[in-house]
């Protein structure tokens, strides 16, 4: 495969993965707003997958950079990997904080009625 074919294949794969991750983000937000306690495990696992995919993207971009491919080939891998890594880590913190708040709220039902 020459460099233009690799770039085209990477664009197709990147577009497909981006669309799937967008759909996945919508599913996560719907699950968090609908019934958070029920879907917490699924959301947590899903965000871990985002972190692992981010690490894979950054690693793949580093391999492509080391292989002396052009910036048009390795840069999207690194950029997508960094975005997934940062979003996965940040959203896990936000969701863990929300879970902690909900557990505190539901653990003391009498205290919430007294206020």
Structural category is mainly alpha
Low-confidence stretches: none
| Overall average residue pLDDT | 84
Helicity, in percent? over 70%
Shape: elongated
E-strand count: 0
- Portion in beta strands: under 5%
The major sheet is characterized as: none
Q: Please give the radius of gyration in angstroms.
A: 19 Å
SS summary, helix count: 4
| Through-space gap between termini | 68 Å
The topology string of helices and strands comes to HHHH
Question: Can you tell me about this structure?
Answer:
With 115 residues, the protein is mainly α. The chain has a domain of 73 residues. It contains four helices and no strands.
């Amino acid at each position: 495969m020459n460099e233009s074919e690799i770039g085209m294949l990477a664009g197709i794969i990147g577009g497909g993965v981006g669309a799937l991750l967008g759909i996945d983000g919508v599913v996560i937000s719907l699950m968090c707003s609908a019934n958070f306690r029920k879907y917490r495990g699924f959301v947590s696992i899903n965000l871990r997958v985002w972190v692992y995919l981010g690490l894979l993207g950054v690693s793949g971009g580093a391999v492509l950079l080391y292989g002396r491919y052009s910036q048009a080939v390795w840069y999207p891998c690194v950029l997508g990997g960094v975005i997934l890594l940062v979003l996965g880590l940040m959203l896990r913190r936000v969701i863990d904080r929300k879970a902690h708040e909900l557990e505190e709220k539901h653990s003391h039902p009498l205290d919430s009625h007294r206020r």
